[in-house]
Amino acid sequence: MDSKIAKEWMEALARTANAKDFDAHMDLISQKVKVFGLPGIEHVDYEGWAAQCKHEFECGILKGYRYDGVNVLMMTPGKVAFETTETLEASDGTVNVMDVEIVIEKESDGKWRVIQENVKV
User: Fold this and answer.
1) Per-residue pLDDT reduced to its tens digit, 65-82
2) Under a CB-based contact definition with an 8 Å cutoff, are residues 28 and 104 in contact?
3) pLDDT above 80 for 121
4) Portion of the chain with pLDDT greater than 90, in percent
5) Edge-to-edge strands, sheet with 79-90
6) pLDDT band at 2 (very low <50, low <70, confident <90, very high)
């Protein structure tokens, strides 16, 4: 299946995070997002994602963010599910590499936003 939509979304998410552009970054996140699979946390919602990003961006915690590879699992005209590897590097040198499954959806305004992320541990 064509991975262009997933790749473009991943590139935009990484670019906005690396630029610490909070508004542009959060515009790629659905208000209904849920993140599962983080140890000790039932799930993260939009407000939790926003609070974490705001903290990391303002405090200079995030040094670099990227995705490597994409494996499309399902694609419909309005939804794409894919697997990828997410790498976050902190300013203190800590590197966190996670395999994730992401679902993005084309919302009513025509923008693709993440609605679900499952961290594989």
Assistant:
1) 999 999 999 999 999 999
2) no
3) no
4) 94
5) 29-36, 112-120, 95-106, 79-90, 62-76
6) confident
Q: Please give the DSSP secondary-structure letter assigned to residue 98.
A: E
Torsional class of 47: left (φ above 0), alpha (ψ -120 to 50), beta (otherwise): alpha
Distance (Å) of CA 29 to CA 9, 24, 45, 96, 121: 10, 9, 10, 21, 22
Three-class DSSP category at 47 = helix
DSSP 24: H
List the domain boundaries for the chain. 4-120
Q: What integer pLDDT is reported at residue 1 of this predicted model? A: 63
Question: Does the reported pTM lie above 0.90?
Answer: yes
Amino acid at 104: I
What CATH topology corresponds to 4-120?
Answer: Nuclear Transport Factor 2; Chain: A, (3.10.450)
Length of the chain, please?
121
Answer for the pair 44, 57: CB distance below 8 angstroms, yes or no: no
Identify whether the C-beta of residue 84 lies closer than 8 Å to the C-beta of residue 73.
Answer: no
Give CA–CA dist 106/28, Å, rounded: 10
